[in-house]
Design a protein that fits this description.
With 481 residues, this protein is α+β, with helices and mostly antiparallel strands. It is 37% helix and 20% strand. Helix 14 packs across helix 15 and helix 15 packs across helix 16. Keywords: ATP-binding, Helicase, Hydrolase, Nucleotide-binding.
Length: 481
Amino acid sequence: MTSDKLQQILQQGEGLEIEFKTSAFELNKDAFESVCAFLNRRGGHLLLGVNNNGGIEGVIENCIPDIIHNIVTNANNHQKLNPPFYLSPEVIDIDDRKIIHLYIPESSQVHNTNGRIFDRNDDGDFDITKHADQVAKLYLRKQTTYSENNVFPYLELADFKPALFKRIRVLAEHERAGHPWMEMSDDELLRSAGLYKKDPLTGKSGYTLAAALLLGKDETIMNVLPHYKTDAIVRISNPDRFDDRDDIRTNLVDSYDRLMSFIGKHLPDKFYQEGEHRTSLRDRLFREVISNLLIHREFTNAFPAKLIIEKDRVYAENWSRPHGAGLIDPANFAPFPKNPVIAKFFNEMGRVDELGSGVRSTFRYCSVYTPGAHPQFIEGDIFKTVIPLKNIGKTTPVKESGWPQVRRKVRRKFGEKFGESSEKILLVIFRSNGLSASAIGKEVGISSRAVEKQLARLKDLGIIKRVGPDKGGYWEISDLS
């Protein structure tokens, strides 16, 4: 959150979507009552280190790690907050003091804390546990607003893909060692993930639409949602029709893999250093785009989700429940969950981060993948994401202070007539590790087959080496000293 946005919240004062807590050295005992109330109502901002009048008192710096640990641990504890919900505290410096900011989105489920249900109005948090009519209205509003919670009483475990349960457990274990899913039966896993509910209208219980979409067999999904599909299209050589297409009508877990493979098939990659590790820039960027396309979608509408690759852009679009209109500003927007249960499930598998981070990550990675360009997120009935590709075929400017030395070493070792095309290939590798043979060929002006032969020759001469596997690795110039 920016300091300007924070100042606006402070000036606005406490209300339906804003709550202040002092929490100078520990988390207020009633803090999770506000968390619960925000989840049940319309979401909101919880600021720790601020008094009731909006005065900044600050949180003692040495106490911040314990307070944040307390928030994260309790948010994932069924006994404290049920069902659990992922929260991401943010520490903000203002007026030489530190406050902790929590953005809490509206949830698609009814939550309780310490066994009590809280709702929110302009005057604060209210315990409605013993008010049966208010509780019933709350459940009804959630059920009718979030279609992912639609209950299908006749769905059985046999309607889900057995192999998928094994896959998601592996993904979750890789993300967090000792993940609770590892010790659960398939039914226990579904229930713990909020995929089994009671319909307040009919009184019947069953697995939900979210369960079918995440783990259902293809025929199961078509039975509960006949219009469901995701269309992946390439329109470059033939813009009026398509060059390639994948009509995807399977579960969301496999849909993610197929869309990532489709992107990998048709777009070049760029590897770059992130911290101490090299990573695929293309995968980091389109992980966010594809996750957003699959997760934040109104599935009950027949409009198909689309991922379209064109000559100068990639754009994704899906039907949405808008909470605004026009371009989204990453520095000043309030994320709103379209399908919180599905999003939480993807988060457990490590395929999406906390709510709102995807927009910021897409801006960060896009500016590197397509130098000088920025993505667009357009809110409306149809939510659109646009990734420009205008500079994708161009390498970044060569580091002139480094390349001449490399060229001299190669010529000294292998002679002046080393080969013009080989030298151009080395220059491309020097500029940008991780390009495919076809992408290198476009840079040099030769076929990808000719590039592959040259790469094999350069490897045999010890000029370049392969780092990582054949798929997912990259070429690097060897130490020629």
